[in-house]
Sequence to fold (488 residues):
Amino acid sequence: MNGRAISRFTAGERLFHWVYFVAFLTLATTGAFLYLPWFSFAIGESGETSRLLHRLFALLLLAVPILTLIVSPKEFRADLREGLTWRAEDRRALRVLLTRYYWTGDPAGLPPQGKFTAGQKLNIGLQILAFAVMAVTGLLLWFGRGLLPVGLLRWSLILHGGAAVAATCFVLVHIYMVTLLPMTNQAIASMFLGTVSEEHALTHHPKWYEALVRRRMSRAERRG
Amino acid sequence: MAKVAMLVDTTLCTGCRGCQVACKQWWDLSAEVTGNRGSYENPPDLSHSTWTRVTFHEVEDGRGLQWYHLAWGCVHCTEAACVDVCPTAALKYHPLGFVSLERDLCNGCGYCLTACPFDIPQLESNVLTGRGKATKCNLCQDRVTEGLIPACVKTCPPGAIRFGDRQQMVTLGRTRAAALQEQGFAEASLYGPELLGGLGRMFVLAARPAKYGLPERPTYPLAVTLWQRLFQPLGQLGVLATVFGLAANWVVTRRLRGKKKEEV
Fold:
């Protein structure tokens, strides 16, 4: 209804996203059993099982980037590079997004965005940072007991919990924006079908869409 | 309920390790394979099956070679970091003034191991799966709550381990330390009555605590205080604030966008 469907994410990219999502939810829940005093259902045997699940899904989460690098290395590296590159216009865009667009839907003054908007870049950057902190501290806590100084373990636990809470907040915002926020929630189609409408591509990612069209045209020319 | 406590008079201890054996018998803990490491001290550390252990310390000081021994195990802090970090309440403050442990509730997370300033709780768990239970002296919670004395106290041949009303134990320990000082043990002291809110296992020492392998000033770990009192509540607040923020955004966007549509 909004024009043609524009391919945005390959099956590999979507697989990466959904495995990460399921692993994250499981880790957040089994972690919360240990973090929140009023949420301690997992006691005794069931607690041991929930801790085992936490370890299994941690391995899954750690495997996600490696697997994606094997399954679709080109897209993964391109996404990472694009997602982590902050240009002056991105910083400007972020200011407009956070102070106006995400509240009023008014795009005035918003610089044209690439494959990832400044808001998506913020989510990607923070999520990767939290992932790195949790991966390192998690492995220290898993294998370091009895080997590492106890002070290091105490601070690792604090960092691990802090990063988990922060990541949970980003994920809540992310879920909200692709389901309830009317300005951005059409984006969710790209994670199920791999495509977005032409209109969404033009309004939200014009620079990316233009590049896509240009590439397609030059390819057509070459084929002659 | 009046608080109880244990008083270990190291000057009466003969190092027979009867307490170690009585503890194993009462709690049905298996023996461990021991080895000769140049000391009577065995096994080398507390473990999942050794909750009480006599430690031996050979120290050369002004009076020649001294041989200090100590019936070591959980000291039952009044301000116990292990209890505060335990996510399943397997570790609890017992009204009688000791730190009880309910094995069935423990999920083996090991937070108590990293929190304890005395390195007491032990956890024998599978490194990969993390399955296991933390263990430590529970002051014979089953005996004490029924009016009996702990197994180690009952068995101690020279009567070096005493048990009873906490205030009485403090008075007894202070009197004993003063008597030792009069006998020429200038460094004699009672260890524990004021540490970490007051220990439930106190020691009459003839020399500085360090000579017995005890920390001179054990403290409640700063990281535990920050975690429990600051970061954990702050984390919950953060998630709550995020949810409220999103709700606010939902209301605002619907209002503003609705207005825009009317104008159009």
The beta strands of chain B are 4-9, 53-61, 64-72, 91-93, 99-101, 122-123, 134-135, 161-165, 189-191, 201-205. Residues 221-264 of chain B form one domain.
